Amino acid sequence: MPPSTILPTIFDAGTIIDASTQPGFYPGIIELKSPSQNFGNGFTISANNVHIFGFKVTGFGTGVRMSKNSSPYHTVYIGQVGKGNIFYNNAFGVGMYG
């Protein structure tokens, strides 16, 4: 599904976005695809304890961008055994920025 605009930043702690809950799921079937090469970020995270599972993220500048928030430490889970993410043809798969 190519977004028509850049997706909003995730600011809510404890957010879970889990594509593996879809019927017939297998890794790579749920795709977040950039409408043009290096179209910003796939997911941008600025929160603690965020989980993103089961997506194929394709064609973005950064597939998942983790940005510093008000806390000096935060935990983000990207993929899990049997629920992994696939990053393909992005400039960067996962990036951490201050």
What features would you describe in this structure?
The chain is mostly beta strands and 98 residues long. It contains no helices and 9 strands. The protein has strands at 16-18, 30-33, 41-45, 50-53, 55-58, 62-67, 76-78, 86-88, 92-97. The chain has a 3-stranded parallel sheet, with no helix packed on it. The N and C termini lie far apart (29 Å).
Find the count of extended strands (DSSP E, 2+ residues): 9
Largest sheet: 3 strands, parallel
Q: What's the overall average pLDDT, rounded? A: 84
Instruction: Report Rg.
Output: 13 Å
Terminus-to-terminus distance = 29 Å
Given as residue ranges, the uncertain stretches (5+ residues, pLDDT < 50) are none
N-to-C SSE string, H for helix and E for strand = EEEEEEEEE
Helicity range: under 10%
DSSP helix count?
A: 0
Tell me, what's the shape? Answer: globular
SSE arrangement:
Layout: E1 16-18, E2 30-33, E3 41-45, E4 50-53, E5 55-58, E6 62-67, E7 76-78, E8 86-88, E9 92-97
Parallel strand pairs: 1-4, 2-5, 3-6, 4-7, 5-8, 6-9
List keywords for this structure.
single chain; 98 residues; mainly beta; three-stranded parallel β-sheet
Short description:
This protein is mostly beta strands and 98 residues long. The protein has strands at 16-18, 30-33, 41-45, 50-53, 55-58, 62-67, 76-78, 86-88, 92-97.
